[in-house]
TrEMBL record:
It comes from the Bacteria. The keyword Iron does not apply. This is cysteine-S-conjugate beta-lyase. The lineage of its organism: Bacteria, Bacillati, Bacillota, Clostridia, Eubacteriales. It holds the Pfam family Aminotran_1_2. Keywords: Aminotransferase, Lyase, Pyridoxal phosphate, Transferase.
């Protein structure tokens, strides 16, 4: 097994990297960018080698997604990692999970319908609901002593509304880092089943969990309700392949499949994957498992390193214990800054570009989300600047 060097610092300037180009106005030249959720780790060697071979062939034409090789790579990965057997006929291509959310919201609801999200949560959930003329219905998570839990009473009340058609579940949860237990997920499904509501499960971070923590794919856990569950998966977070625009949407219900095909093929034509994306995904799922295991172990150490430092040097800040994702969620409310003041201090005093908690909706004010999928020397520099911003 190859040992990968995650300490290597890679200069991403000149690569059109979004994290370096899409910065707040007036950002300092030496800003440290740890906001968007892509890694600063080089991709696994088998992925890069497969891409080189494909490029050397000299032709990058139209490429099929529904091939035996591609389906075997996807289904093999999820069976090995989770024991989840997926029928290849129920897997559909999307260039990303966010475009899939937009399409699913459009085909599963009508204008004015309500859709539940559990804030603070990944911003595009609310964006795609509102952007399609639907109503965002918030079921806020409960944060008690740094531990996030679901408010099932409130969720039941929100789902009781006949105008609410379903919910988008973030599992693992972004930004809190919660990996929901079997019991929590079964409770969600039970509430939705009793009211005949659909569930879109965004499981894009499923492969990135702390040691000893287990993610439960919703369709595997609750197959009896599979006709009302859709799962969104992708290799992008797991293997640092976000730029390859490859996601796999699992849709067991034939009626929903027909609606999906009508939306993505007949209406928008979003059915052709990129040639290099397919190549990268097959190589990732088939040959890069050891890279994922080593990456997870390295990120675990980054979390321990950051949490220890913040507890020691910034006693008024609270690190939310992470069970999954590579995103550190820090409660800075103890310092008393308004959201605008906090953002100003991070950018202009700390020279840090982070994801401000307010973008995750109600309950995110006063928090910062930090991407720790980077070399430890970068984490150390972030912590030094974080101290400067809050001091």
């Amino acid at each position: 097994m190859k040992h990968y060097n995650f300490d290597r610092v890679i200069d991403r300037s000149g690569t059109q990297a979004k994290k370096l180009l899409q910065l707040p106005k007036g950002a300092p030249d030496d800003v440290l960018s740890l906001w968007i959720a892509d890694m600063d780790f080089a991709c696994a060697d088998p992925i890069l080698e497969a891409l080189h071979r494909r490029i050397d062939e000299g032709i990058l034409g139209y490429t099929q997604y529904k091939t035996p090789e591609c389906m075997a790579a996807i289904t093999g990965w999820f069976f090995r990692r989770f024991g989840w057997e997926i029928d290849p006929g129920k897997i559909f291509f999307s260039p990303g999970v966010v475009p899939a959310l937009g399409a699913l919201v459009s085909i599963l609801s009508d204008e004015g319908d309500g859709i539940v999200i559990q804030n603070p949560v990944y911003g595009p959930f609310a964006g795609k609901i509102a952007g399609n003329g639907r109503r965002v219905v918030q079921n806020p998570l409960i944060c008690r002593d740094g531990d996030y839990t679901m408010d099932f009473g409130d969720l039941a009340a929100k789902l009781d509304d006949p105008a609410v058609k379903g919910m988008i579940l973030c599992s693992p949860h972004n930004p809190s880092g919660r990996v929901w237990t079997r019991e929590e997920l079964k409770a969600v499904v039970s509430l939705c089943e009793a009211r005949d509501k659909w569930i879109i499960a965004d499981e894009i971070h499923c492969d990135i969990v702390r040691a000893g923590v287990k993610h439960h794919p919703l369709l595997k856990l609750c197959p009896e309700y599979r006709h009302r569950i859709i799962s969104c998966t992708a290799p992008s977070k797991t293997f640092n392949l976000a730029g390859m625009q490859m996601s796999s949407i699992v849709i067991p219900n034939p009626e929903y499949q027909a609606l999906w095909k009508r939306q993505t093929i007949e209406r928008t034509g979003l059915f052709h994957p990129g040639a290099l994306g397919v190549t990268a995904m097959i190589a990732a799922y088939n040959e890069a498992e050891d890279w994922v295991d080593q990456m997870n172990a390295y990120v675990d150490e980054n979390f321990r390193f950051a949490a220890d430092f913040i507890a020691r040097e910034l006693p008024l800040a609270r690190v939310i214990p992470s069970q999954g994702t590579y995103l550190l969620w820090v409660d800075c409310r103890g310092y008393g800054f308004s959201p605008d003041e906090l953002a100003e201090r991070m950018l202009h005093r700390g020279h840090l570009a982070l994801d401000e908690g307010v973008i995750f909706g109600e309950g995110g004010e006063g928090f910062e989300r930090i991407n720790l999928a980077c070399p430890r020397s970068v984490v150390a520099e972030f912590l030094k600047r974080f101290c400067r911003a809050l001091s």
